[in-house]
Amino acid sequence: MSDDRASGARGESGAPHETTEDLLERVAAGDRDAFERLYDRIAGAVLGVARRVVVDPAQAEEVAQEALVEVWQSAHRFDRDRGRASAWVLTVAHRRAVDRVRSAQATSERETRLARLNHAPAYDQVSEAVEARLEREQVHQALRSLTELQRESVRLAYYGGLTHREVAEHLGVPLGTVKARLRDGMIRLRDALGVA
Predict the structure, then answer these.
(1) Is the pLDDT of residue 129 over 90?
(2) Choice between 187 and 95, residue whose per-residue pLDDT is larger
(3) Average of per-residue pLDDT across 14-21
(4) Which of 50, 119, 139, 155 is the most buried (most CB within 10 A)?
(5) Domain range for residue 160?
C-alpha cells in the first residue's frame, strides 16, 4: 500500500480507519510510525496477556516489552489470510509469557535438585558413618567386659593420650602394674572384638 493511500485512509485526525492488519503490514516494511500506532493500540492487551500468564507484574512488563520487540522484528511473518493481526500479536505475547514461566520453573527445579544433592550426604559418607558408629558401639561393649582397673588404664592411655608412666602417676600405682593392666586389657579387648 502506498503512503498516499495509507494517509488517505487515516484521515486528518490520526488512524481511525487504519486496521491493525494494515499497521502490522506497514511495520513489516519497517515503518516506525506505524509501529508507534500499533504499540499504542495493542500494548495494553499484550501486557494483560503477560500478566495473566506470568503473574509477577515486573516480569509481565518485561515479557510484554520482549513480545512487542518480537512483533517489530518478525512482523513480516504475519499472514493476513491466516487470521487477525491482534490474534497474531497476542499469540506472540502468550508464547513469550509461557516461555518465561517454563524457564523460571526449570530454573527453580534445577536449583532445588542441586540443593538436594548438596545437602544429601554421599553414599560413601553414610556408609562410613554407619560403620564407624557400629565399631564405636563394639568397642564400648568390649570395654564393658574389662575389669574397672583395666578399663580405667585403657581409657587414660588410649583415649586420654597419657603415657604409661603418666597413667601410673595418675592412678598412684607402680608402672609395672599399669603395663600389666594394659596388656591384659588389650588382650581381652582383642578377644571381645574378634581381632586376630
Answers:
(1) no
(2) 95
(3) 76
(4) 50
(5) 123-193
Phi, psi of 30 (to 5 degrees): 90, 15
Question: For the chain, how many structural domains are there in total?
Answer: 2
If you write DSSP's letter for every residue of 8-70 in order, what string do you get?
HHH-TTSSTT--HHHHHHHHHTT-HHHHHHHHHHHHHHHHHHHHHHH--HHHHHHHHHHHHHH
Tens digits of per-residue pLDDT, 81-104?
A: 999 999 999 999 999 999 999 988
Q: What does 135-190 look like in DSSP terms, one character per residue? A: HHHHHHHHHHTS-HHHHHHHIIIIIS---HHHHHHHHTS-HHHHHHHHHHHHHHHH
CATH assignment of the domain containing 179: 1.10.10.10
At residue 103's C-alpha, the angle toward residues 99 and 40, to 5°, is: 40
